[in-house]
C-alpha cells in the first residue's frame, strides 16, 4: 500500500514549520509581522505530527522485520544532513553571524549530548530524537523480538506520562542521554507506533484491552496536566494519530496529487535548509535597506526556501537511491567483499596510478 496522503501531509507540515520560523525570526528582529502575524503559535507543535508519522512507519518496518533497518534509516538522514550543514556554512559566511566549528563532531553525530552545543541548522533537536528512535526500533527489528515491541511501547508510554505527572517541566530542545527517554515529545512517536498496531489488529481482544488502558492513561494525564505549559503537545499528538488513521482509510478512495506527494518526498531537505535561508534573506534585507525585515522580506525568504528545496530535494532523493543501491549490494555480498570492492580496490588503483607516474 502506498501512503501518498501521508506524504502530502508531511510536506504541508514542513511548509507550516517554515512559516512559523519566519514569524519567529521576524519577531526577534523587531520586523513588521503584518501577514505573518496571522500564523498561529500552535504551529510550534508541528513536530508532534512528524513524530507521529515517524512512529507509524517505524512500527510498520519493525513489524515487517525490515532487513538492515538501522543502516537504511541512518542512510536516509545523515548524507543530506551533512550536505545541509555544508550549505549552512556557505550561507552564513555571507552574513555577519558566521558559523564556527565548535562541537562539530557532536553536532554531526545527532546523538543526545544535551544543551550547550553549537548546532548549525537550528532544527537538529528533532533529528536527535529521530535518530534515537531508530536505535530503539533497531533492537526490536528481528524475528525473535518484534512481538515484544508493542508491550515495550506501552511501558515506555506510561513511563513518559508518569514522569510528566510528577516531574513536569518545559522540555529542553536538545535532550541528553537521560532526558531523551522521558521527554514529552516521545508521546507522539509512541502513539504513532501504537496507531499502526491498533489498525492492524483492532479486532483482537488483546488489542482492544491495551487500547482501552492507553486511552484511560492518556485521559488521566491530560486531565492532570491541563493548563500547564506545553501540555497541549499531548493533544497535538492524539490529533496527529487520528489524522493518520483517517488518511490511511481515505487512501483507498483518493490519492494525493503527484505534486503534493513529491512535496512530502522532498520535505526533509526543506526542513534542513530553511532556517539558514531565512537568516540570510533577513540579513541581506537589513544591510541593503537599513530597516528591519518585514512582510516583503518574509515572502522573499519563503519563495527562496521553496525554490531551493525543490531542486535540492531531487538531489537528496537521487543520492539516497544511489547510496541505498550500493549499500544493499555491499550488505548482500558481505562486509569483507564490500571492503575489498569499495576500500581496498580504490586504494590499490590509487597506489598503482602514482607508481606509474613516478
From TrEMBL:
Pfam families: Acyl_transf_3. This is Acyltransferase 3 domain-containing protein. Residues 6-306 form the Acyltransferase domain. The lineage of its organism: Bacteria, Pseudomonadati, Thermodesulfobacteriota, Desulfovibrionia, Desulfovibrionales. The chain crosses the membrane at residues 7-26, 42-62, 74-99, 119-141, 148-168, 180-199, 208-226, 232-248, 268-285, 291-312. It comes from Fundidesulfovibrio magnetotacticus. GO terms for cellular component: membrane. One of its GO terms (biological process) is polysaccharide biosynthetic process. PANTHER family: ACETYLTRANSFERASE, ACYL_TRANSF_3 DOMAIN-CONTAINING PROTEIN. The keyword Transmembrane helix applies. Keywords: Membrane, Transmembrane, Transmembrane helix. The keyword Transmembrane helix applies. One of its GO terms (molecular function) is acyltransferase activity, transferring groups other than amino-acyl groups. InterPro entries: Acyl_transf_3_dom, Acyltransferase_3.
Amino acid at each position: 500500500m502506498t501512503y501518498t496522503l501521508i506524504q502530502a501531509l508531511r510536506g504541508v507540515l514542513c511548509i507550516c514549520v517554515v512559516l512559523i520560523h519566519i514569524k519567529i525570526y521576524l519577531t526577534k528582529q523587531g520586523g513588521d509581522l503584518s501577514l505573518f502575524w496571522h500564523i498561529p503559535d500552535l504551529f510550534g507543535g508541528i513536530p508532534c505530527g512528524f513524530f507521529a508519522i515517524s512512529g507509524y512507519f517505524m512500527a510498520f518496518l519493525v513489524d515487517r522485520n525490515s532487513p538492515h533497518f538501522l543502516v537504511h534509516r541512518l542512510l536516509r538522514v545523515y548524507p543530506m544532513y551533512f550536505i545541509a550543514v555544508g550549505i549552512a556554512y556557505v550561507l552564513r559566511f555571507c552574513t555577519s553571524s558566521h558559523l564556527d566549528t565548535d562541537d562539530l563532531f557532536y553536532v554531526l553525530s545527532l546523538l543526545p549530548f544535551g544543551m550547550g552545543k553549537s548546532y548549525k541548522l537550528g532544527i537538529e533537536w528533532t533529528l536527535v530524537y529521530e535518530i534515537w528512535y531508530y536505535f530503539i526500533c533497531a533492537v526490536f527489528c528481528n524475528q525473535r523480538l518484534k512481538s515484544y515491541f508493542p508491550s515495550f511501547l506501552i511501558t515506555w508510554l506510561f513511563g513518559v506520562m508518569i514522569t510528566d505527572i510528577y516531574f513536569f517541566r518545559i522540555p529542553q530542545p536538545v535532550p541528553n542521554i537521560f532526558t531523551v527517554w522521558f521527554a514529552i515529545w516521545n508521546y507522539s512517536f509512541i502513539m504513532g507506533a501504537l496507531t499502526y498496531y491498533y489498525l492492524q489488529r483492532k479486532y483482537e481482544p488483546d488489542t482492544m484491552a491495551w487500547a482501552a488502558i492507553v486511552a484511560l492513561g492518556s485521559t488521566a494525564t491530560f486531565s492532570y496536566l491541563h493548563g500547564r505549559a506545553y501540555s497541549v503537545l499531548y493533544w497535538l499528538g492524539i490529533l496527529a494519530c487520528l489524522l493518520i488513521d483517517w488518511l490511511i482509510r481515505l487512501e483507498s478512495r483518493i490519492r494525493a496529487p503527484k505534486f503534493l506527494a513529491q512535496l512530502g518526498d522532498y520535505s526533509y531537505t526543506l526542513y534542513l535548509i530553511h532556517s539558514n535561508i531565512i537568516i540570510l534573506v533577513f540579513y541581506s534585507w537589513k544591510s541593503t535597506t537599513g530597516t528591519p525585515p518585514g512582510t516583503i522580506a518574509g515572502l522573499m525568504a519563503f519563495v527562496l526556501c521553496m525554490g531551493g528545496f525543490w531542486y535540492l530535494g531531487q538531489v537528496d532523493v537521487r543520492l539516497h537511491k544511489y547510496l541505498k543501491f550500493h549499500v544493499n549490494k555491499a550488505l548482500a555480498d558481505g562486509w569483507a567483499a564490500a571492503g575489498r570492492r569499495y576500500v581496498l580496490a580504490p586504494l590499490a588503483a590509487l597506489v598503482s596510478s602514482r607508481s606509474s607516474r613516478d
